[in-house]
């Protein structure tokens, strides 16, 4: 009798054990935790097996207390926008992603959690490609006018630009080259408008701009490269023509010459020959 009872207990214990282990295996843990940050819009992302569990994100600066991110409590999503919370910008932040039951009335048991890598928005947020305009001031000088990219951060009803955050640390690298010449020159501008002088008069120049933050670590110094903008040289339309256009122009000129030669040749023949040729030409399908 006693042995049957023992066996029963062992059975119960074993099935309970197998249930817990199975449960344990299906509890998702946040993995591949990454910071994605562009122009100071910062989102924490992670991956997890699909399940009926949720996640709560906490963040802290070095050695400080944890704060729950109000928008990321028991979320089923695997990303959390922390843009508004990582202030001041020039601090190292760390996040903790806790796996939780969907319903709030479960107490926190030993569910898994994952720490994020450290992240400092001021020195690690990527900077997008800028827009800019180039105006010719005189024959040898142009003005490059750069628009500082906007962030998603608002302060006092004003949307901040990357200049409002990076201030003096923000510089721009302007690369330019003379049309048809591969040698690039670089100009570093501490402001968002720059005058570039010493250009060859009458030449077309092409410009590209990228944000440049020399105070950062090498890997994070350069913003994305802008599209290219070119000035028109004196050569005007001739200089701007592409190879295709040139082929077109040459083809057109050759056609005109052939037509002229044909017409002249026809006119200079004797009238009888001319007439018969004309009639055969007229009857031929065009
Ligand atoms: C910045 O951009 C690089 C290259 O695209 C990427 O590898 C990196 O993860 C980005 N960093 C952040 C914080 O988004
Ligand atoms: C062109 O303009 C720049 C700045 O306005 C000036 O310093 C330079 O002397 C001018 N050059 C010529 C050739 O007029
Ligand atoms: C630069 O461009 C902006 C907008 O395109 C304009 O408001 C500003 O006056 C320009 N600045 C200069 C110095 O040309």
UniProtKB/TrEMBL annotation:
The keyword Transmembrane applies. It is a single-pass type I membrane protein. The gene is LOC101164095. GO terms for molecular function: cytokine receptor activity. Residues 8-100 form the Fibronectin type-III domain. It is found in: Membrane. Residues 132-232 form the Interferon/interleukin receptor domain. This is Tissue factor. GO terms for cellular component: plasma membrane. Interacts with HSPE; the interaction, inhibited by heparin, promotes the generation of activated factor X and activates coagulation in the presence of activated factor VII. Belongs to the tissue factor family. Keywords: Blood coagulation, Disulfide bond, Glycoprotein, Hemostasis, Lipoprotein, Membrane, Palmitate, Signal, Transmembrane, Transmembrane helix. PANTHER family: INTERFERON/INTERLEUKIN RECEPTOR, TISSUE FACTOR. The keyword Lipoprotein applies. Initiates blood coagulation by forming a complex with circulating factor VII or VIIa. The [TF:VIIa] complex activates factors IX or X by specific limited proteolysis. TF plays a role in normal hemostasis by initiating the cell-surface assembly and propagation of the coagulation protease cascade. It comes from Oryzias latipes (Japanese rice fish). SUPFAM superfamilies: Fibronectin type III. One of its GO terms (biological process) is blood coagulation. The chain crosses the membrane at residues 245-268. Residues 1-22 form the signal peptide.
